[in-house]
Design brief:
Layout: H1 5-21, H2 27-34, H3 38-50, E1 54-57, E2 63-66, H4 68-73, E3 85-91, E4 94-106, E5 115-120, E6 132-135, E7 144-153, E8 158-167
Antiparallel strand pairs: 1-2, 3-4, 3-6, 4-5, 5-8, 6-7, 7-8
Helix pairs in contact: 1-2, 2-3
Length: 172
């Protein structure tokens, strides 16, 4: 299913919020996270309901919940909720733990051209092009990646990094 980047961002926000709380997410919360007007969110949710991506839950504790089709549209497994590896991430002077889906590299044979694509379970809206970041260490190899944000894909929760340095402890 082809979703616009805005639709994908809003759906990702809903899925992330639902996974964190296992309860419906109100339109006002989605609007706050996505920095959109609540009316815009409600309109998009109606369209997503017609596509079978979300269900509305009425009442004071209501909101929206993603369907299995929403997970499929985002290439995520609803059964693997919370299964992303939690890694440390330093952004500016703050260190936070984030769930990372994957880290993919290009041009690792050319250190000055090495790039990494890091896919998160959370929104990447707080990142801007040029921000320095440190990701890691990864659980199995202890890899730490230092670099600078080259681009963000907020709809897919992806950071594209220009890798300045990679380190992993040597095993004996």
């Amino acid at each position: 299913m082809d979703l616009t980047s805005s639709q994908r961002e809003i759906l990702n926000t809903l899925v992330n919020g639902y996974e964190a709380t296992e309860s419906p997410m109100p339109a006002t919360e989605i609007a706050d996270v996505c920095d959109r007007h609540v009316g815009t969110i409600r309109n998009l949710m109606q369209m997503m309901k017609s596509l079978g991506l979300v269900e509305g839950v009425p009442g004071s504790e209501g909101g929206y919940v993603p369907t299995d089709a929403a997970f499929a549209a985002l290439d995520r497994d609803p059964e693997a909720s919370g299964d992303g590896e939690t890694l440390g991430l330093a952004h500016g002077y703050d260190r936070v733990d984030v769930a990372v889906e994957s880290i993919d590299f290009t041009n690792v044979h050319h250190p000055e051209k090495c790039r990494a694509t890091v896919t998160f379970r959370e929104s990447v809206t707080r990142f801007s092009v040029g921000d320095p970041v440190i990701v890691g260490p990864t659980p199995k190899s202890g890899l730490v990646i230092t670099g600078q944000v080259e681009a963000t894909d907020e709809g897919r929760n992806v950071l594209h990094l220009d890798v300045a340095r990679m380190e992993a402890p040597l095993e004996r």
